[in-house]
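I keep forgetting this: the sequence line spells out the residues, with the fold written below as integer tokens. I include a record here:
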Amino acid sequence: MFERLREDIQSVFHRDPAARNAFEVLTCYPGMHAIWLHRLGNALWKRDFKWLARLVSNFGRWLTGIEIHPGATIGRRFFIDHGMGIVIGETAEIGDDVTLYQGVTLGGTSWNKGKRHPTLENGVVVGAGAKVLGPFTVGAGAKIGSNAVVTKAVPAGATAVGIPGRIIVKNSEDTELEVKRKAMAEKIGFDAYGVSGDMPDPVARAIGQMLDHLQAVDERLEGMCGALTKMGSDYCAKELPKLPEDDFAVETQAAQRDTQSH
């Protein structure tokens, strides 16, 4: 028991930079209190003391604002950050090293008995306010974005964002595209900090598409200039006018602040 307690406290230090010492975690972290009460309730549930298990669960809800059904299965080093408003259903299964933020619901979409809540494999992170609904699996290391509503399986290592949740899987083509966007952004004097294909921000997505278009136009112009040079023309020998950095300094800083606030 003490080994599990020590393990729980260490998991907080690994994932919450605000934690200062073990005594603070023991006394001031409602997420930890909810987990410890759930272990008691789950042990009673498995021994068929159903009413007593529900009573312990209800006390935990009253004390912490976190509702975990005593029938839910939870692995080791489970971390709930802030925690208020979290709901975990009866048939939910949670692996090791999973992290949930406030307002998360692991719920069902059916009133039928049997498996009706999600399974979170090892290392899953679920952002604040997200809703994961249904009897499917969220693969190991996957991430659910804040306020997302996910009703379908999420592959291991992927990210789900938006309403309804859409799956984003990083691949080599995405990485190559982001490199091109960054190069074009640097060329025209725009700081593309945080502009990536997996951002659900429509402004960031629009900027990314504009950078893709500019990249294509730039490549086409270079090809045309190359052809004209071979024909003996010096039309492309002129340098393009440089963009004054001062004009972009304020916009760049504003873009960084907006991105960081997301």
Remarks:
- The domain at 2-168 is CATH 2.160.10.10 (UDP N-Acetylglucosamine Acyltransferase; domain 1).
